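Chain X:
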Amino acid sequence: MPDCSLFLDADQLLLADHFDLYLPLFSPLIYVFGTWTLLVVQWLAVLLGAWGVRRLALACGAEEPIALMGMCVMLLFFGVFAAMAFDYHSNVVAAMLLPWFMLALRKGKVVRGAFLFFLLLISKENLGFWIGPIALLLATDRGVGRKVRLPAAIMGVVGIVWSAIIVGLVMPALASDQSFAHFDYGILGASVADAPSALVAKPWELLRALFVDHVGVQDGTGIKLEFWLMLFVAGGWSLVLQPRLGLMALPIMVQKMWHDDPGKWSVIAHYGIELAPLVGVATALALARIRGATMRWLPWGVLVLSLACTIRFMDRTVAYHDRSRIRIYQERHYVKGYEVRAVHRALEAIPLEAIVSAQSPAVPHLALRRTVYQFPIVREAEYLVFLPAESPYPLDAMTYSETLRVLRGDPGWEIFRETDGCVVLKLVEDSNSR
């Protein structure tokens, strides 16, 4: 069974960190796409999700040009760009299944809808708390046939119960410390079991926490308000005009804004991706209701505003630091300060059977080997890989520089390869250095 030894000191199953069953499903694709596999899957999923937005908008009565506008709004949504610029996450893939799930129920395809619902559930432990309420809302939707309403209601209950069991019982049982690692919701209590009573006991405090910093961090309220403002401008206004779709966004918004980590509140990374298909569909349906001369310019204005929010995300946000990684309009985004090919040659020189501990940005390039660790986890590693010009995560810059200096002077390690962008150390034979 896969474990967390790559990035955690404590031994525990990977499913204790995130209950993500997509990874074993996608893993055979490494024989086709290699280390690019998950990124390719994510790219294809977003394109499929955009097509699903178009299909759902058409099924809900929008005309073809407006349905295409909704699709484009989703693709231009800053949350999509932020997710793609950050990393792979299975909830990105799952979010792109949502319009297809909604379309299946709207067309009365119960079996297909149940299958898609199952795929949504197994993507991540918390998705049941989002897709469950969505299924319940669909069960009361006039656009859904009567024969679908009971199955949709059952799916809704199953989704909520599934996530409750996974985060409350299954994942703690798999964890080394017998706890759920990601319940970082101090406002709801100390554990998952405290959350229901908190929802009843302090509704106004929880409502306020959707918009105002509740943990006391620098610029905390600004981070939340920035997200709300960009969401509104990028098409979130349509969720107000389509309140049922707005309610579908609510479960994911409370999970986002009640979290203790301010990064989760922000516009960065994949923490807004679930809103993308909802905004795309809601925008198309809102535009479909508008008639007259305004339709000549309004759809284009919506697209421009959505694009403007994405450009604003690239240019300046409260939470991002190294913006060269996301500013695709700057040369620095494409050009490194060192010779990249030389770094690749250094990595390729490491024997395939060797055990490696590598700095975080190098790990994906070394992933297809039996054992690899993210530095500073070393364990029984025979090679250490450092990229001095890249992010030192999870160390801070000072600790990273000092650690590299000490290791370079350690007689237990010798320089195997060195370029201006990469240092590879090899364990000296018969050395006990660790």
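Chain Y:
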Amino acid sequence: MRKPVPHRARLVAFMLAALPALLRADPALSPLFADNAVLQRDVAVPVWGTAARGEKITVTFAGQTRSTVAGAGGDWEVSLAPMPARTGGALVVTGRSTLTRTNLIVGDVWLCAGQSNMGLRVSEAAQADAEIAAASEPDIRQMCVPQNPAPEPQPDTVIHAGWQPASPQTVGEFSAVGFFFAREIHAALGVPVGLIHSSAGGTPIHSWLSLAALETLPGFRQAFGHFNARPGSPALAVLLPARLYNGMIHPLLRYRLKGVLWYQGEGNAGGNPRDYVLQQSRLIESWRADWGGTAFPFYFVQLPNWSNPDDASQKKWAYFREGQAACLKLTNTGMAVTLDVGEPGSLHPKNKQAVGHRLALIALAETYRRPVTASGPVMVACEVQNQSIRVRFAQALGLQTRDQQPPAGFEIAGADGNFSPARAEIDGDTVVVTSPQVARPASLRYAWADNPTVNLCNAAGLPAAPFRLDQPAR
């Protein structure tokens, strides 16, 4: 009986068999640099690929020429100097043979990641037919990362989706949130916008974190370590720790970004909000580190209103939204409040125009320093005044209600902690809250439900953020 070939011997045999091909290989580009690609402006842009070992490679783009020699493993990389926004150019790679990628542009590249609400397409959004018919936006482009959970970090060669300019023929497949965001950024700045869309429906945040990042979280090994010890079915792979990071984020790490748009949370909303704060905070920090240590903008969507049939308390999502908001403590983050544009009967509200608009306002204000109102009213102080509580808001210019009715969604409680619906009245940039059931107010909360009734906004029409507060100042 023939003895099995040791693993090391098999590996050596494979390398020897592959060596002739490696020595004669034609140059290849990373598939991220396909026709119609968008390169990030104003930063050094790495361009990479493979070739025969020792082969001289020359890359030409936008008046720049860079040369290098492929290393022992056949890998090569050059760096293009920072470029301003521009449209229409060819990227040419010359070695043993020449390959060309056409119609590349330079602008801002945003990663759009998360669950099915990020994945919801323009064709599924509100007013889809009209949006598709009007979508002649050749300088807005999307590359969609195929769903690819993987047990180990994957190279960029697993991505073969290509880049698509937005047109009536293509935009129906774009992420609706991403496209509506990009449309406003492009209109305001006049620069091309690239969207790298990487989402998977029904997935928890731990699948989007690297294993190294997860292992820094308290209790990770006890809670999740056994999952990766099981092969699991392909359908369940997206639920396993680090699997989506490995297959859908890691392949992108060398590509330069402007920032990240994140719409995820439904897959975690029934759990402990404190755990989510730790996980989303770690995701932000680790992705920034993995992309080279730059604290790029990270803007996320707070979960909308929804009549959660699995929540008898009708408040789980309120606590979860509070956990999401806690991540704003990290630098260069922003949160789009959407509790007024959900659909109580659907986990997938179709008004993605409002979501993209609110994310774009945050980016315009915080990233691009444009003078726009980017947030609805945000509670900054509460004060007990006899039998009422006065709530003071920031971002409250033109504080009003969208239906001209008294502000809804406020509740107050006494020392017993029993909350009662409250009457509310706008007074300048404050709201005065009272309840005939509570003679001595001690606690206050606003929009504290899975599906709250709310109408408070500012002159920009942006909704007030939900909050709760125990023991206001006296």
